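Let us work through a complete example step by step.
Step 1: write down the sequence.
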Amino acid sequence: MTADLDAIREHGYVVIERLLSDDALAAIRAGLAPHLADHLLGRNDFEGHYTQRVYSLVGKGKTFEDFVEHPRILAVCDALLESNYLLTASQGIQINPGETPQPFHYDDAFYPLPRPRAAVSVSTIWAVDAFTRDNGATQILPGSHAWNDAEVVTKLSSVDFTTAPSDARVPRPPGALPAGWRDLVRDVTMPPGSVIVFLGTLVHRGGANRSAASRLAFSNQYCQPWARPQENFFLSISPERVRTMSPRVQQMLGYSIHPPFMGHADGVHPLRFVES
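Step 2: predict the structure and record it as tokens.
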């Protein structure tokens, strides 16, 4: 645990290899298969026109609930976030052949707080398939979590954040990066079952898939208890489903009170609405 935190604080991330067993990976693939069968693709360059996303993954089965509260991940969150922290996003991600790189970004850019700063969120990306340089391995800029606001503006200004229709997308050449970034970017190649854990301020992107096969992953993100989550789990996961979940997952979905009274519902604890 100490080594995980030391790496995150110094570099902005840590890679933990082979944290999931083959049986766990098989369960994840089986759980995602019916949702991926719909073959719903992204709507812009950020989601990816050749990328499939399964949102509110935590609500799609017990397997995914279990990984939200994986003890090694929660140990990192316990150290970096305040108690009562929340789940802010949970999704499956399949990058299909022909996908181009995402724009470089950082996950909690929508929180308008000066950088550099203490963590507002912690992200995870789990490799279900191996991450390789050819199939869309996540690309990161180590140390970018410590950039100040001026550095972010300067260094990301050269990146094209515009969207394009799918028929106008032309895959970029292998290794194409903004000027001066070639020596900064690291491809996070990982065997199946591995996970990268990183601060919400770390600059990264999904890579291009130049291979002939899809690359499957899932991502859970956590945020401070006073920050608004990206996904509205109150609407995307039914009360009946929430009722079957563990107390820790219920709490992270927002069925909790952050002292003194943030999160109440009509003056009472929100769990009262799913327990009745």
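Step 3: interpret the result. The chain has one domain: 2-163+174-275.
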